[in-house]
Amino acid sequence: MSERPVCPRCGGEISWIESQSKGGRVYYYAVHYLGYTKVGKKLRKRVRKCYLGPEAYEYVSRLHSDLGLRLEGAVVGSKRAVHYLDAFIESLTRVELDRATLIDILAKLKHLTQRLEEYVRKVEEIEREEAT
Prior knowledge:
This protein is of the alpha+beta class. The protein has helices at 58-62, 79-91, 99-131; strands spanning 16-22, 25-39, 42-54.
């Protein structure tokens, strides 16, 4: 049985995600189901909503257009990191960088690779333990 996602705002379980369109933009909310309450002779669903942000941060993204970076809202989830990494890699061909900066980026990417490999090993270990 899968666990419900955790709300990044309040830490509670998310019952569902709701979107609202306003002014040509899409905004997302985590909805927390709180049960029913009786109002007169009718039952009314009780929910609490936490704002998760827009689908994309258009204004702030314009400030990063030289990098080709489009900042996305939290609702995109873990794929957001992959999108940002892809945009960063692509930006290396569009911006002029000096040798020292390139060497610094390379060192950080090597360090990142090592950390990701460690993280993958830990996740695989956890998955093996859960499978047994």
